[in-house]
Task: structure prediction
Amino acid sequence: MVATGLARLHAQVLGCTRCVEAGLLSRAEPVLPQPWAASVVLVGQAPGRVELVARQPFSGRAGRQLFRWLVRAGCTSEGDARRRVYCTSITKCYPGPALGGTGDRRPSGTEVRLCRPFLDRQLQLLQPRVIIAVGGLAQSRFLPPGPLAERVGRCFDAAGVEIAMTPRTLRAAACGGRGDHPRPWVLPLPHPSGASRWLNRCEHALLLDGALLLLAALLHRERPGRGDGVGIPP
Ligand code: SF4
Result:
């Protein structure tokens, strides 16, 4: 009954006004994916302006780049990736533009704290094998502090301990085994926004290549529609 539980949770999130009541947002308009079951969960920072209009996570330019990466990791298309990966974010509402800068405002610690029970419940319902943590805010939720260059291209267990990707571990991952590491496994990716200069360096692009190879192994056995058959996309 995973998808049914998710649908109920989504209804609660869509009615949430906590950040408005706390004076942190002028409007609460949560953006959520379709409530179908998946054992890979992708967590980003927060929806942007385009997502707010499209009512779908990762619909803007950064999202298109992200789905190009997922296609490189073995998904056949954006639609296939959306069926296989439940895409959500640390906070569910558009935080508005950054003050005096470009791009969107990073949600405050209070917004993150107010919204955290929803992400906790999403993860509790889905029990993912793999969490793809996109960008610094999502990675800070799952991993100890550290530079991006020491995260991308690596995989970590639920305790934040790096998992050595030996042939045996990769075989276990591809077969759905848990190996010796507590789940979920966390795979960090850089933020796909064009505003990020991190990928301009050749060595960082190579780290991303490695991360997508790892992701390809982890996604290998994923088939869309795991769960109870409710909410499975066409
Ligand atoms: S960001 Fe989260 S906690 Fe804040 S209003 Fe939106 S759904 Fe509620």
In short: The CA atoms of residues 225 and 232 lie 5 Å apart. DSSP finds nine helices and four strands in the chain. Confidence is low (pLDDT under 50) at residues 225-234. The domain at 2-97+114-219 is CATH 3.40.470.10 (Uracil-DNA Glycosylase, subunit E).
